[in-house]
Amino acid sequence: MATAMDWLPWSLLLFSLMCETSAFYVPGVAPINFHQNDPVEIKAVKLTSSRTQLPYEYYSLPFCQPSKITYKAENLGEVLRGDRIVNTPFQVLMNSEKKCEVLCSQSNRDSDDKKKEKDVQFEHGYRLGFTDVNKIYLHNHLSFILYYHREDMEEDQEHTYRVVRFEVIPQSIRLEDLKADEKSSCTLPEGTNSSPQEIDPTKENQLYFTYSVHWEESDIKWASRWDTYLTMSDVQIHWFSIINSVVVVFFLSGILSMIIIRTLRKDIANYNKEDDIEDTMEESGWKLVHGDVFRPPQYPMILSSQLGSGIQLFCMILIVIFVAMLGMLSPSSRGALMTTACFLFMFMGVFGGFSAGRLYRTLKGHRWKKGAFCTATLYPGVVFGICFVLNCFIWGKHSSGAVPFPTMVALLCMWFGISLPLVYLGYYFGFRKQPYDNPVRTNQIPRQIPEQRWYMNRFVGILMAGILPFGAMFIELFFIFSAIWENQFYYLFGFLFLVFIILVVSCSQISIVMVYFQLCAEDYRWWWRNFLVSGGSAFYVLVYAIFYFVNKLDIVEFIPSLLYFGYTALMVLSFWLLTGTIGFYAAYMFVRKIYAAVKID
Question: Which pLDDT score, from 0 to 100, does residue 9 have?
Fold first, then answer.
């Protein structure tokens, strides 16, 4: 992976494509031992732009090409990320310096316009050029700085080297100052005695692409080669996020303790008194609905299906974050995180189906086959449908981010060949298992629900319930959005795991508080309401996504905007399912617990 270290305000108008950076990397996940003057292969990944959000293949622009272009076989995660890894003509030898080499010469005529400024930071790739007072300049010289670690060998053996860091410094140097010729030789100007290479869109420009190679010995060992990226983020901000989240959890715990220790315990004690029952029943309302609180809701099949998909998501996210925190999904394994997430979601279908089947039977459902099919297809079908529509637009732009047709067929085969049978299997055993044991019987005639206050409105409940869980994780959400939409690094999965645990706790606590208030208002229709309200933080994620789009990104075209909001909609939907499921099961356990603690005549 290359890094950009020339941080001038930039813009590139090149060959009618709006690409900002080009990413290189030195292949090899396992350590590769090099000897002196061994060839080191440098491959290109893709062209990216935070303004268009559309990745392109490296040779979509007329860069210098090798005699034979060879593409690497990507895994599923790399394909979905839009990576198209290809060889390059750069000739690099281990620990061998190159002052200035001509790669090739090119000419161009057309270009487009865009501009942007960035702060100093490491990035995936290097910037292709910049603008200054409406003039366009091209980075036509790349300085490769490669750091190697010398491995200790026995005295009679030759030293071996391992590449532990890779940087690229792009420079714009005028052709006259390069003193380049077509015999692959050139001379770099000394100091600052050079002018940048300007591109005139109105006429043909003769360009020479050159590069230099510089090797430096490093004390960094192979196992610690990613520490540079891990230290780029301000760890104090992440600790502030954790402290902020803990404060939110303690605040919710205080409210919950007040309800359970003071109010709820007092209610249960009064309800269990044998004398003066009629007076005590008027003091609080949650016992009055004991005959209706476990009445099955409308559309139990859809509710259980959504909760089953939520369990699937929860298991997948928990395992992925935990494994990544342990370092098993190394960033050197390109696409491993997304590949693991896709396969885990498929295999977690057995747990989603089991939980959905058992809940569906608890809600007096009988059509288990239809329920299993709904669980296996409802949420994945929405995701696939949105992705397919967006993929059609990406295809129209000839972007490498478009999922190839064979990959799409493979995903469909995984869905119907792995996930759907596992959901059916889990649903079958879940439906056969004994339903959840509710502590009170349900009356035959539903109780009339009194008129509710304005603050018991469902949308008001979503706003109230969502703000605190969102406040516990919004700082970390900024880094996640930056990693997704601005091509930044995110490898601090330890912090992400802590935030995820805090999110689970806060969603559970706020869900219990909200269902208690609802039952006290003698409204026993808590099943769907609690599921919707517990996912209220997803509404704030949507609001934050809109804020991020307006204030942080420079996307102006229709298709990039459509991609942003399309993928954001999938994120919000998934987050709502996740948090709604967490809150639902916490509230369900709470309701069963409190009604099991009182004497029902």
Answer: 26
Supply 102's token pair: 């001509």
Q: Which residue has the tokens 């139990």?
A: 300
pLDDT band at 571 (very low <50, low <70, confident <90, very high): very high
Cα–Cα distances (Å) from 233 to 111, 117, 121, 229, 324, in that order, read: 35, 19, 10, 8, 17
3-state SS of the chain: helix, strand, coil percent to 5? 50, 15, 35
Taking alpha carbons only, the member of 121, 110, 139 closest to residue 20 is 139
Cα gap 19→61, rounded to integer Å: 9
Cα–Cα distance between 328 and 241 in angstroms, integer?
Answer: 25
Per-residue pLDDT tens over the stretch 465-479: 888 888 888 888 888
- Residue 390 tokens read as 């967006």
Q: Are 246 and 502 in contact (CB under 8 A)?
A: yes
| Residue 493 Cα distances to 336, 353, 515, 597, angstroms | 14, 28, 33, 41
Alpha-carbon distance 205 to 110, whole Å?
A: 10
Residue 516: per-residue pLDDT: 87
The helix (H) or strand (E) run that includes residue 599 is none
Other Cβ atoms within 10 Å of 263 Cβ, number: 13
pLDDT in tens, 71-107: 887 778 777 777 888 888 888 888 788 878 787 776 6
At residue 170, what are phi and psi to the nearest 5 degrees? -80, 145
Reduced to 3 states (helix: H, G, I; strand: E, B; else coil), residue 530 is helix
Exposure pattern of 392-415 as b/e (b: 16+ CB <10 Å)?
Answer: ebbeebebbbbbeeeebeebeebb
The burial class, CB within 10 Å (0-12 / 13-18 / 19+), for 56 is: buried
Cβ neighbours for 29, distance < 8 A, ≥ 6 positions apart: 330, 332, 333
Alpha helix segments (H runs only) across 162-299: 175-178, 227-230, 235-257, 265-271, 277-283
Quick one: how far is CA 319 from the chain centroid?
14
Residue bearing the bigger pLDDT, 1 or 298: 298
